[in-house]
Amino acid sequence: MTDDARRRILERLKRVRRADVPLPGELPETIVFDDPRAKFAEMLRLVGGTPLDVADRDAARAMLAELPVVRQAKQIVSYVPDLVPGTPELDTADDPHALAGADLAVCPAEFWVAENGAVWVTDRQIGQRVSLFLAQHLILIVPGSQWAMQMHDAYRRIGSIDRPFGGFISGPSKTADIEQSLVIGAHGARSLHVVRIG
Asked: Rounded to whole angstroms, what are the CA distances from 120 to 82, 88, 163, 170, 171?
């Protein structure tokens, strides 16, 4: 493209002015589930995750010790070492590339969302945030009492959180872009367990 053609295109774009559109007002509270815990479990299963509910940390520790993804893991990154001990050199790794061979990551989460089975995770207690995506299997530990009914509630809640990194995780990684064939673990964890404590 010549400089003259570029200049003409940019001048034409400057002349095109769309009318300002006001932002939407406050959204009403529209979704209320009779049993938010059951709705979360239903939605998480729907997207390929596994919900697990336990009464306390002792019960969580015992239940996690029996999970096949924990028993079979050789390289574990654990930011919740009182529940699942990690491989020491991975738990304290400064270089995110060191986690490339992790079989399992066990990470704390902040709250769960009933509407879609999502869990809000930040880097508040996670040493390497890539552990959420590099490990073959992912276990998220979240307080059962910390939840939001729907995503509108969740966004209002995270609006006050000042962290460099945060994201919603719902189910294992998956894609159906190639020949519309569903592939689990295409770009991240092949399985997701969400453990709600309490």
From this structure: 21, 26, 12, 9, 12
Give residue limits of the domains in the chain: 33-197
Q: Among residues of the chain, what percentage have pLDDT more than 90?
A: 53
Q: To the nearest whole number, what is the mean pLDDT of the chain?
A: 89
Q: How many CB atoms lie within 10 A of CB 47?
A: 14
Least Cα distance to 171 among 68, 53, 42, 77 occurs for: 42
179: confidence class by pLDDT, cuts 50, 70, 90: confident
Range list of H helices, the chain: 3-15, 36-46, 57-65, 68-71, 88-91, 131-134, 151-158
| Dihedral sign of CA atoms 30, 34, 40, 42 in order | negative
Q: Please state, in angstroms and rounded to a whole number, the distance separating the CA atoms of residues 182 and 9.
A: 42
* Nearest C-alpha neighbor of 135 from the set 144, 126, 122, 143: 126
Q: What is the pLDDT of residues 58-81, one digit of tens each?
A: 999 999 999 999 999 999 999 999
- The domain defined by 33-197 folds into Rossmann fold (3.40.50)
